[in-house]
Fold:
Amino acid sequence: MKEKYFAIMASHRKNRNTDIALTNYIKKLENRGDLVEKVNLLDFEINICTACYYCSRNFKKCIIKDDMEFFYKKFEEYDNFIFATPVFFNNLSTLGKIMVDRSQMVYASNAFFDKNFKTTNKKGKAVIISTAGAPYYEDQFTGVESTLRLFFKNLNAEIVEHIKISNTDKNL
Ligand SMILES: Cc1cc2nc3c(=O)[nH]c(=O)nc-3n(C[C@H](O)[C@H](O)[C@H](O)COP(=O)(O)O)c2cc1C
Structure:
């Protein structure tokens, strides 16, 4: 069955390791008939969460008006997600983490109200693609996976695959 994915490219550089790995993955999905909408976080203005807790008191509302509104709509619309990020200090890129922090509104909608952020209960799939500069070492990807597991839990999606690419900086 054809699947639809929303793919987030969280690298601070276009057409480099993470973007290329994501593009290759998307080609594979499209070759088998799946549909993918890809966005680059670099193309959006997303401000940091100010920890005002407005979203804990106002269902499905964030007080900050910026491009995150586009992402909230996509989080509602899609069941399946792909998140591609370079590893920064064993975790997501800064851009990626800023966006993930703003999904606190999704967490708050689920946690503090008697209804959920999403209107369906359909369990979705989540794929992570991480690229890291150093040769593989213990914990290189554990921060990425642990952060994104929580992010995807709020979106009712389960991690089905984590593609880990080490040693990308070998030719620097
Ligand atoms: C701020 C910063 C932090 C990084 N931290 C790590 C790290 O903790 N572990 C690692 O293996 N590589 C680390 N790297 C290397 C990147 O993960 C690697 O170069 C990645 O493939 C870059 O992706 P890009 O080509 O999409 O920008 C770091 C790079 C930067 C710029």
The pocket of flavin mononucleotide is lined by residues 11-13, 16-19, 86-90, 131-134, 140, 168-169 (CB under 6 Å).
